[in-house]
Amino acid sequence: MHKDKAYHYVESGLDNIYLEDICVYRCKCGEFFPSIPGIIDLHTIIGQILIKKTTALNGKEILFLRKNIGLNARTFAEYVGIDKSTFSRWENGQQKLAKPNDRLIRLIYANVKGLSKNDIDHLLKEAVKDPNGSESDERINIPVNPFFSQQREEMV
């Protein structure tokens, strides 16, 4: 077992998520197994980070947000007001997302997740300020154990 470096969380479906302060076990066969507490809460945190970023969502991020709120592509496409094939092209990165649709996807996610009015106001003011930026490749480090330790203390 070791905690010496951040774990690249490729299981999220995103290329730039790294979890800090988690135990990673190594099998004699060479495989690594992370111990990730509170995966549902972790995915909610990742979703909140994604909807607050200032650059446009990419296909993998749209897919992550949709799956995180438990909707199939057809239903999500209906929420956005487009056909399923267009939505599929967005998720597969074959077609860029227009800024209004990007904001709508973020708002749908925020609404389904029950984010506060302050978070939604921030989202409306700050999100997608730079629709052509490439922040989606920027590494996102999430300190997992300190967050979940604090959360457990608040529950007691």
Structure description:
This protein is mostly helical. It has a single domain, classed as Orthogonal Bundle (434 Repressor (Amino-terminal Domain)), CATH 1.10.260.40. It is 49% helix and 12% strand. It has 7 helices and 5 strands. It has helices at residues 39-52, 59-68, 73-80, 84-91, 99-113, 117-126, 144-155, and strands at 7-8, 17-20, 23-26, 32-35, 140-143. It has a 3-stranded mixed β-sheet. It has a two-stranded antiparallel ribbon with strand order 3-4. Strand 3 (23-26) and strand 4 (32-35) form a beta hairpin. Helix 1 (39-52) packs across helix 2. The chain is globular, with a radius of gyration of 17 Å. The model is unreliable at 150-156 (pLDDT under 50).
User: Major sheet, described briefly?
Assistant: 3 strands, mixed
The low-confidence runs, each spanning 5 or more residues with pLDDT under 50, are 150-156
Strand arrangement, major sheet: 1-2-5
How far is the first residue's CA from the last residue's CA? 28 Å
CATH topology, anyone?
A: 434 Repressor (Amino-terminal Domain)
Number of helices: 7
From the helix content, strand content and strand pairing, which structural class follows? mainly alpha
Strand content range: 5-15%
Briefly characterize the structure.
This protein has 156 residues and is mainly α.
Essential attributes:
single chain; 156 residues; mainly alpha; two-stranded antiparallel ribbon; 7 helices; 5 strands; disordered C terminus
